[in-house]
Structure formats: structure tokens, C-alpha cells
Amino acid sequence: MASIAFNGLAEEHSPSIFYPLPIQSEGKFLAAKNLHLSSNGGIWVQDVHSNVLFYDGRHLLPRNGSLLDSVGDQLAYLNDSFWSFADNEVYRSYPSQKKELIFSLEPGSEIRKIGSSNNYIWVSDDSNFYTYDVTTSEIETYSLLELYKHNQSSYVYINDAQRVLSKWVLATTSGSYLSDGAQFTHIANSKKNFTEKIYFSSSRRELLIGTLRGALIIDLNAPSKIGPFIGDSHVLSFAETNQEYWIGTEHGLFVYSLLTGVVRKVTSSSQDSFSLLGDKIYALLNDELGGMWIATDRGIRYYSLHSKKFTRVSERKLLSLFSDSSMVKIAKDPRLGNLVATTTGIYQHRKGGEPELLYRGRVNDFVVGNGDLWLATGEGLLRFDIQSRRVTRQLLSDEFQSLSIDRVALDDERLWFSSRGRLAQLNIKNGAYKSFGKDWIVESFLPAKITHLLPTKTGDLIIGTDHGVYTYSGQKIYFNRESEVFGQVIDITQAKGGKYWVVSSYGTFTFDRHYQNLTPVTLIEDSISPECLMSTSRGMWMSSSKGLSFYSHSADLLKHYGSPSGLITNEFLPRICATDKFKPDQDISLVLGSKYGLVKIKERELLVSKAPKNKVIFSQVSIDHSPIAVGGNIKDGYQFPYGSSLSFLIGILPEASTLLLEYRLNLGDDWIAFEGGQLTLAHLLPGEYQLQVRPSISITPDDKSLTTLNFTIQKPWYLTNFAIFSFFLIMGILVAIVIFWRSRLIMKINRNLKAKVLLKTDQLRNQSRVLLSNNQQLRKQFQVRNILVGNVAVAAKRSVTEMGARLHLEDDKSATQKYSDVIHLLNVLFNDKDNVSGERESHNFLQILNAVIDAWREEFIKAGLSVKVENSAMNQHIQIDYFNLDILFNTLFSSVLKRCYRGQELSIQISESDSMLVIALTDFGAPVPVFKPTIHKDNIVNLSTFDLSIENLPTSVAISGGELFVYDFDSKNRLEMSWPIIELEIQGPPEKAINLENSAVPSHTLTREEAWINSVKHLISENYSSPDFGTSSAAKMLFVSERSLQRRFKAALDRTFKDYLNEYRLEKACESLLAGEKIADIAFECGFNDPSYFSLRFKHHFGLSPSKFVENHTGQ
């Protein structure tokens, strides 16, 4: 019959039923902004005042205040714990426990937002986004600088974040962003829209982005494809079911079908008590039990996904269809279709058409038979001819002529009808009339009322009255005394197999075809009111004040559907129900009258569907009236003191709070029923207990939701016979444990100390290596200067001796020359190396070169290298601006030792060219490092602290007043330096230079692997200053894979490429620090993006921060 209204209801979907919390019916109001599912099935509620509460279906804990101490407005929920922040610190809180500090950001950071996703906690400040893995305790940092590049606002606020596969997606005030490495990239489809919420469907690999104009769906398999917008206002919440996305907005709730792609706005019942009050949908929660919890600005509502099996027509729609009248009876007929009797007439409705009024006037009852429609009205018994569409009044005896007909029924030939307790029959074929009056009614029940008439196939009649059941059989009427206790009869029907079912005010019962063996039918609960019966080939359906029950034909309760599974308590109307059982079994539908309209059900779909199962929840455990655990934090294994009073608050979801429970303490014990949702146990004996709780009413064993809590009552010490022995034994064990613990502690301390010593030793070794390498230049400089002074002194002595032998000869030019030489050599001895007056100095270059070669002799011999000097210059006296020749050649020779291999030769050629002394150095080692640009002498603040590394060779030569030329060949390196020559009177051949021969060292040909390692080292020396240079870029430059590079490098040097690169950078940085450069400049020059990170790496490698290292070096 519901198709009467359903076919006329094309403009909207079936209204939905939203169940309020029981506490709201008590006058309480709870506005929640967040809902979370507890591990035990309960609901964590965070209200608009940031109070945290727990709901178990019966109780809302606590009754006042919050389960948590003050934690601020922002809370993140993960695994039954709540996370909050204060400044740069993040805390975790459990109900009834103190909060604990989990991690903190760098000092100065101020957290703006906190949330959770998967097994991560995320926070954000003004410049970074941080994630904390709860499992591994690892913290990852992502820069937010990329967010500011895509917009012009001074601050981008992060509203939400979700872990999507292995990346993070941010919802911000300026669009959505996807993590890429340690940064974020903008999601183009989100544009610059304000994004409040995001949701990731792992099953469908789809991302939902909530904006101010609705929700956008992005398919990760086709991210460029723009999906439909769902809703048209500010999105506040998301939820997902197997077939739908639920989107909560500022202006209502929208549902997107995953099967059809249709978006619909959820409508609610016209009844305020079961409507979705409030437009703002703050939170949505799928409880994984077939229900959706909805938090609005007007409270919390529950919607059962199973309610889709119950299609509804609102009372408002029915009133518009049936002229503002109320229904009296509904029926289905294979020829007439759907018939509805109301207080204003009877309507016929065929599928696809509009209701047709057949008769105007109040109709109390009707029946269809033999092509006629018989109407019981206030004007008497009327006959409606279906073919002619004419209504005629049936002439009756005087006792019925002016009376209102109450009930009417029809068998094959006889029409039964009643009025004010009188019963009569009319043969519709021959017109024979018979009245039974009302003398057949038991006198003690007068005045009586006939409430139902049911003719049987055997020609009998079952009469329902306001005090029991009568049967007409064999020309006699009998009263069934056993039916008296069930009160007024509401409905009677015959089940398959011949058994009769009777619904009465105080229960339901059956009797056999002989009207005997009255048997009560078990109801879903005692003291409920049955309303209507429907019989199908599958079984019996009975509506009641608790919902809809399905029975087998033998009266076994098989299924029950009620609140909150899609039906409303006390909604069904008496006698108003129908079924089209004349259709095939798969097409049978049920229609029931409700206070709120009509409810239509497809029998087969409802029976095969799985209704939500109830889940029993332990919501609070108390000892001596003091709570110790709440919600999902209740775990097995509690140890309770002997003699304590235990109290358990127990709820059940999603069933209503009136469902009874039963418990037992151990397997094998009897089940004990209890009410109120609180179980108190006292004076339990010591031992282990297994508390089991389940609903006391269930249809099948599979429907019983059994919840178990294991605990132990501790055995007191005074109950044992071995108390003293146990005391000493425990003391001994404690002492042993303390000794063992202390020994383990000492061992742990020693291990930690040893590790620290090893780390410090390694750091000092690194410092020493760098300082020794740096000080080698100073040692060689002093050595060269000592050799030079010694050579000059010997030459001066020889000149003075010769001069003294010739002084007796007057005007001896040779003596005069020797005298000049002595004066020159003395000038060399007393030359001021730090002369910066601008006056040019003269020096004998060959003497300086010989001194340097002599100083490096031992190193060249150990390295297996030889030095060949060819001097063709007649005059080796040069002019320089600043004396640093010894340091310059020390730097060159140190570089040669690093680049050349055993058996190779360094060739030094000295010649004159255009008044310049030219020195050419040629070797066949690794390429010379890339030189830095020449710095003008006037731009150097302190020449004595200038960096004299090989990279600054052009500047060093320029400072001395010379020139440098570099020639790049494939197989050799050639450097040419030149200085101006001082014109002196030259006597004799050129001085002889020192040559270092090492004939004992055989020549060495590089292996392929050595040549490759040298090329890698050269590549590092050329590119280490680039922050982008690393394993990947090096592999590309060498045309090998990263894995191959790492493997070959590790095999050759027994260290990874990354470690070698970091050590090279840090040693270069150390050299620059010793040269006096700024720390920040050094960090960037050595390939570090962040000076702070550089300082951290430097301290880890050398044991000192860069500033402390410079301070110590300066002090020394």
C-alpha cells in the first residue's frame, strides 16, 4: 500500500530517521565538535567547550566537567589517547591519568595546529610541518616555505592534514598541498580555495578536499581529472561507508553515492524528535557497526545505515494525498491495486497514477469480493460495484438499518458484519440474512465491542472482541476463556499450516485449526504492545511498540528490527498493515501504518540483510567508588585488592538503553540478569575471574554480543600459611633483583661511558688530523726559512773570507763585488717578512727554491717522487712586493704530494724571458683543483692570516708581485710563474739547483680502479661546494648508477661516498675556519644549506662547535 504515496513522491527521497541520544530526551543538550571511535566500541565526545566525554549507549561520562584536565581547545585523538600542545611541547593524555610530555620542538617554536592521521601525530608552526610516528617515535620535518610562494598572504594556516599512502596532504587557507621530499607542492585542482577538511579513502584511493563551496573528489589514479563538487557550502566533516561518502557542511548533510555518482541532501522526518536538527554538521563518525554518528550545532544524532531497508512516506505527504484525513485500514488487491480507507473516504491507487476517491465519507472497514467492494460506514453497509463505479446501500433488518457498521468480513458466500456488539451474516448470492444479536456475548463482559472478524476456510468465524476471542462453529458461538487474559483483540490472521495468530492488547497467542491449544507467543520483550499481523509464505510478521518482529510459522522468533535500526519505538498503528502476498515470493512487500506516515519494506531484501549487532561496552571501572579507567583504556589483567568494592559501568551500542543485560563471573556459572547498566561486585574471594556480560534478550545465539573482562582479586598475605617464609623469600629475591639491577645499571653506565670516550677520541683524532695537516705548512715554512738562513750565512762567510784576502789590493773590483754580495746576503737575513711598506724587495730565487726542496726532501723520497730542476737563467735575483715565496712553494709541493703517484717526476724549469724570471712546474698527477678568483691585495685585511690553500694560489702569486699561468692538458699539469729580474752584474755561470733523484723507486702505472677513484676524488674536490652535489648527481656525472657508485667506492676506500663527501666538506670547512673566514660563509661555501645543520655536523665530527673550535685555535 505504500506505493500509494511512494509513486506520488517523486520530488524527494524517503525521509531519514535520526535518533537523539537518550540524555537529550531528559532535557540535556550536548553540542559536540568532534567524535571519535573508541577501541572498545564506545564514542569519545569533544564538546564545543573542549570537554572530553565518553558515551556507551547508556551513560555519558562524566555527568559534569571533563574526563581530562585542562588541555586547551585543540585536541588530537589516537588510540584512545588525546594529544595536546603548549608552546613547543606536545603532550599525551589518558582519562583519569596525568598528561605526559612526548616530544618538543626547538626552543622558540610555537605550535599552531595539531592533528592525527593513521599512526601519526602532526603539528605545525609558522614555518614547518612536523610528523611524529607513534610506533617508532621518529620526528620528520617539512618546510612550509613552498606554501608562501603560491600566495600573497603573510601567513598560511593549516586546517587539516592526512597521511596519503607515503605522503602528506595539507588543507590550508590557500588550497591543498602534497608533500614532496621535505617540502610541499601545490595541488592544482584545489586552486587557492580555503580548505577546511581533507579525507583519504584508502579502499578507493580517492582524496576528498573540503572547501568553502563544497567537497571536491580527486582520484589518485587520475589526479588531473576533476570530480564533482558535493554540496555548496563550507565543508566541516567527512565520513565513508561501503557505498557512500558523507559530507557535513555549514548548511546540511550531503551523501554522494559511489555506485551512481548521485549527490543528495539528506532529509529528515517531519517529527522534530527524529529530525536532523541544526544545519552545521561538525563531525561524522562511522562506528563500523552499521551506524553513523552525526554531531551538529543542535546535538548528536545517530543514523542507522540499515534504515535504508525501510522506505518512508511522511505524514505531511499522506495528508496532502488524502485530504488531511487519517488512515483507518489499508489493503492490497490484485485487480484494484492499493486501497486506503480514511476518515473521509476510500481511495484506490494503481501504480504510476494518482489516488482516486471511490467513496466520500467515513469508512470504518472494507472488504473486497466477487467484483464488489463492501464498505462498513457510519451510514450503514454499502456496496460499491467495481465495474459500474456505483455505490448502493444494502437493505438490512431494522436492528441494523440506522446503525453504524463497525466491522465487515467476507468468505465465499457470506458477508459478516457487526455493529455495537451485534453480529449478523448476509448471503451475497441469495440475499439470505441472519442476525445473531449480542446474546452470545458472555454477560459479565457487557457492554462489549467487536474488534475483528476473520472467516475461516471451513465456514467458521473467529470473532475478536474487547475481552477475548469467540469462535462460531457448528451454528454455535464459543468463548475461549484462555484468551481473556490477553485483553482486547487487535488483529487475527491465519498462518501457513492452519495455525491462527491473535494480536491482543496484552500479548500475542496462537491456537490450532480446532480453536484449541492456546499458546502464548514469545515477544522480543515483556510488556510491549503488539499492533498488527501479516502472513507470508516465509513466515509471520508482527509490528509492535518495539518495532517489527519476524517469526516462523511455528512461532519461533527469528529476527527483530527496531530502534535504532531504522524504526521508531511506539510508531506503528494498530491494524494498519498489509502485504501483497498474491505476488511471487521475491516481490512481496510489506506496508505498515505509522504515526509518522507509512513504512514500506521489501521482505526478501530485509531478511537477507544483516542488521547491526549490539556491542556490550565496559565504560568505567571503579574501585571503592573511585574510577581507575574509562572507555577504551579498560584492559584485561587488573589486579584488585582483596576486600575492595568493584563497580563496572556497562553500556550497549547501538541498541536503546532499555535493553536488559546479564552477567556471569566464570565459565560454567549461571547467567544473572541485572538492570541499570551498573554492576557492583563486593566480597569476592581471591583468585582469577572472567567477567562476561551480554544482552539478556537475543533472537539467535549468534546475535549475542559477549564482552569479557579478565581481572584478579589479590590474595592477602595473612591468608597464607607461609607468610614468614614468603617474606624472607621475597626479601631475598628483592635483594637479588637490586643487585642484579645495580650490576646491569653499572654495566650500562660503563657501556655508555665507553661509547662517549670512543666518540670523543674519534672527534679529537679528527681535530688532530686537520690541525696536523694545517700545521705541516707552518713546519715546512720554518724549516725552509732555517735552511735559507743557513745557506745565506754560508755564502756570506765565503764572500767575507774572499773579500778579506783581496783587500790589500787597492782598487780591487772583485773585492768590491764580494762586499756588495755580503751586504745583499745580510739584507736577506734581516729581511722583514711582514713588510707592507710598498717597497719592492730583491731575493735570490734559486736560494729560496733550494731551501724548499731541501725541506721537502724526506717527504718526496717517502712518496717515491723525484724532482728535476733545470736552470738556464743567468740572473736569479727577483723583485717581489711581499715575501711569501717559501709558503707559496710549500703549498705547491704539498699539492704535488697529494696528486702524484709513486715513480712520477716533478719538473721545474727556470728561465729568463723579457726581464722576467719564469718558473715552470710540470707533473703528471691528478688534475689541479679549481682555483678561486684572484683577490686584489688591497681587499685583504690581514695578509698574515690569508688562506694559503692551493685553491687561492692565484691570489698568493699576485700578492708577491708575480704572475701565474695555468695550462690544461689531458695527461699533465703545467703551472708557470714569473717575477721581475733585478739587473746585477753577473759573474760566472748560473748557480746549480738541487735535484732529487729516486732511482730506487720503480715507476708505477695506475690500475683502472685507482684511476677511477682518483677521478671520483677530483670530482668531489671540484663540486663539494655545491649543496646539490651528492650521490645521485655524482653518479650522473660519472655515468654510473647510484648503487654501482656506492658499491665501488665502498670497496675501494672502505667508507661510503656520503661519509667521504661529508668528511671532505668538514675538513675544508676546518681549513677555512683556521684561515679566519666567517662560519656562515664557510657553511655555504662547503655545500651546507643551513648554518645550523653545518654546526651540528661539525660538532659531531670534531667534538666542538665551529665557534668554539675557532676560539680554541685563536687562544692557542
TrEMBL record:
SUPFAM superfamilies: Calcium-dependent phosphotriesterase, Homeodomain-like
Pfam families (UniProt xref): HTH_18 (PF12833)
GO MF annotations, alphabetized: DNA-binding transcription factor activity; sequence-specific DNA binding
Domain HTH araC/xylS-type residues, every copy: 1014-1112
PROSITE patterns: HTH_ARAC_FAMILY_1 (PS00041), HTH_ARAC_FAMILY_2 (PS01124)
Claim: Transcription is one of the keywords in the record: yes
Gene3D superfamilies assigned to the protein according to its UniProt record, in alphabetical order: Homeodomain-like (1.10.10.60), Immunoglobulins (2.60.40.10), YVTN repeat-like/Quinoprotein amine dehydrogenase (2.130.10.10)
Membrane-spanning parts: 717-741
Protein name: HTH araC/xylS-type domain-containing protein
Organism whose genome encodes this protein: Vibrio genomosp. F6 str. FF-238
